[in-house]
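pasting for the record
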Amino acid sequence: MTTADRYLVSDIKNILENGYKDIDPRPKYEDGTPAHTISVNHVMRKYDLSKGEFPICTLRKQAWKTGIREIFTIYPHPTNVLSEMEEMKVTWWTPWDIGDGTIGQRYGATVKRYDLVNKLIENIKNDPYGRRKIMSLWQETDLRETPGLAPCAFLTIWNVRGKYLDMCMIQRSGDMLTASGAGGINEIQYAALLLMISRVTGYEAGVFTHFVANEQIYDRHIENAHELLRRAEEKESAETLVKKMAEGVADQSGAAGEGAKDASPMLILHKDPGCDLTDIAVEDFEMVNYSPMEPQLKFELGI
C-alpha cells in the first residue's frame, strides 16, 4: 500500500473509534435530510515528494486530472465565474452558484484580486529563505462582500530548503472520503500545485504537509469507510503473499535481495524549469504506476 493508503486506514479507524457526531449540521443531502458527520479534530499527514511519496489513494480510483483542473481555476487561471470554470472542464460547482453565475468572491476571485500566486513566485525567487511565503484565501473583506461557500483548503505556507521547495496546506474542514482524506483530491491538487510552483521557480518539489482542523465522515459514507478498510486488508494480504513468494524464489536461487516491490504511484510534470505558470496545462502531467482497486465507490454529497 502507499503512504496515503496507510494514512487513510489509520484516519478512518480513528474517526470510527474516537469521532464525535455533530449537532444541527448546515449541509443537507439532495433529499433534504440533514447530512450528519462523525468528526475528529487536528489531523496531519506528511509526504516527501522527493522520495516518491506522492499522496494518492489506491484503495479506490481518484480522478486526479479532474482535481488538477479545479486547482487551475484557483491559481494558474483564477476565476469564480461558473462558465469559465466549465470551459476548463470544472462542472461541479453549480450548486454553489450565488445567483449571478459565480461562486461569489471566493477561491480564484480572491487569488486574482490580491495577485497571490504571482507575489508568491516573486517572493520565492527574490527572497528564497524569507519566512513570509503565504497565500491565504481567507480574506475577511471577500467573505463579507458576497455570499458563497467559505474556502475549505484556505492557506498554504512555502519554504525553500536547499534545492527543495516545501509546502504545508491548512484546511479548516474536510470531507474525508470524498475529497480531504489521505490520497484524496485535495492532497492530489495541492501536491500538483507544489510541483508547478517548484518547476516555475527552479526548485525540486520536497515535503508536502496537510493539516485538517476538522475532518469528517458523513453518516451515509460509513458503509464505504468499512469497505475501504476491507480493501486495505485485502491489498495488504496480497502484497505480503507476493513478498513471501519473491523471497522464496530468491532463497532457491541463492540471490540476495528484499523481494519484489512495486513502484509507488507518482505524478510527473513534463515541463522545463523556469517555465511560466500559465503555460502549464493538465496535459503536461502524467501519473505513473497507478493501479487503483475497483469497482469505484459512490458517495452522496452533503451540500
